Amino acid sequence: MLADAVRQLRRASVLVVGDAMLDRYLYGTVNRVSPEAPVPILSVERELAMPGGAGNVVRNLTALGAAVAFISVVGDDQAGSDLTGLIGGTHNVEPWLLVQGGRPTTTKSRFLASGQQLLRADQEVAMPIHPRLAERLVKIAADAVAATSVMVLSDYRKGVLAGDVAPRLVAAGKAAGRRVVVDHKGADFAPYAGADLVTPNRAELRAATGLPVGTAEEVAAAARRLRDAHGFGAVLVTRGEHGVTLLEGTGEAESVRHFPAVAQDVFDVSGAGDTITAIAAAGLAVGLPLALAAQLANVAAGIVVGKIGTATVRESEILQALKPENSVLRKVVTRALAVDQVDRWRRRNLRVGFTDGSFDPLQPGHRHLLEQARAWCDRLVVGLRSDDGVRRLKGAGRPAQTAVLRAATLASLGVVDLVTVFEEDTPLELIRLLRPEVLVRGPTQAGGRAGGQGSGLGSGLGAPAVPGAELLAEWGGQLRLAEPLSGDDPAQVARPVGAL
């Protein structure tokens, strides 16, 4: 089963050697044009820094739970210090970040507004590292490879793998009986001759072979040319919106497989190659057939392009994507996946609504509430109280139905777009994370049992009557109160309470 294969990836142990970078993202808003030049002025609201380049391969591996040894070179500057701290603080990573004096750490700064990149500024010197440092790097890698199952060489052409470093590392991997996976962002694959797997994209494959790569057949022919020229064991080609192509074996044992792209909103393709390399390497590390590893890598790539920036893919996300397209359980997600999906909807300018409850069991009044809620938004997320939460709220003997059954029942409704279970006594933390444009409450939640002291909101003069209402002021959300099914209480007629 594919799901079982995904869970095996957490057992992988991988050595990554290559060009580490620091990726900075500066997010803000643009409200005016500079009087000094016809350029937008970005009012920076937050800044995010993360490992990029080979460091992003490491991040993708650790996101799966794999253990990683990482060898690279940074400069003796603030960016190098920041990158060392980020890598060192990552769980399951043994870092060997060597420092070269006078060499700037490769840094890519991206400026974004409304989900769009305005500018990227790079700071780098793409020169070979110092020979003595290269010697030390190769020695460390030769020692470390024996403690891992697969070696990944991530070459962004910034100098870490320049000269004779790459062929020496391939030889060290082979001598240790380890498979070598190569992701090379260039046209000359000769230094990596004899590697077990290379993962070029179409542009890199075309540059390396001089052959056309427009069709699946042309990609296979070019991959065959690349394999034969350098004695590679297999070639895994990323083909963007067309998925991936895997060529493995030779002669009568040769096979070519084309895996179509997994349908996904594409927001940012940066880092997708790192994800494919990481998943393929992890698969080989735990003994999966290469074709199966490639299939999982293709699914993971379809997820990561739906995120902004050099993102990673978690095990839970891959498992979610593997659920049958027509399965209602695709709507039942973890809290982290709910946050990611809401972000994707919001980047499409979709209005997100939220409501919550125990729904134990689902009653006609509940359906009426959900139908109203969906009419006030483009996508509706339902927070479902956990079994323990229902028991604390309603006493022994409840819930009548488990959370699994209640979630599946909710997900089967066409008006519900996403279901996520919360363990807390109130949904306030979930609301804070999702930041819905519309918060929908039922009649009892507006002032009865759910809105009183048992809600966890506290009490006293001026305390809000509706759980979560006070949070909406942070992002300009809107509260809506649903009409009861009987329609005999005019005080509860659906109405906007205003942007709070």
UniProtKB/TrEMBL annotation:
Source species, domain of life: Bacteria
UniProt source species: Roseomonas acroporae
Subunit structure: Homodimer.
Entry's family note: In the N-terminal section; belongs to the carbohydrate kinase PfkB family. In the C-terminal section; belongs to the cytidylyltransferase family.
HAMAP family xref list: HldE
Annotated segments matching region Cytidylyltransferase: 354-500
Ribokinase: annotated segments: 1-329
Name the UniProt record assigns to this protein: Bifunctional protein HldE
EC numbers for this chain: 2.7.1.167, 2.7.7.70
Active site: 274
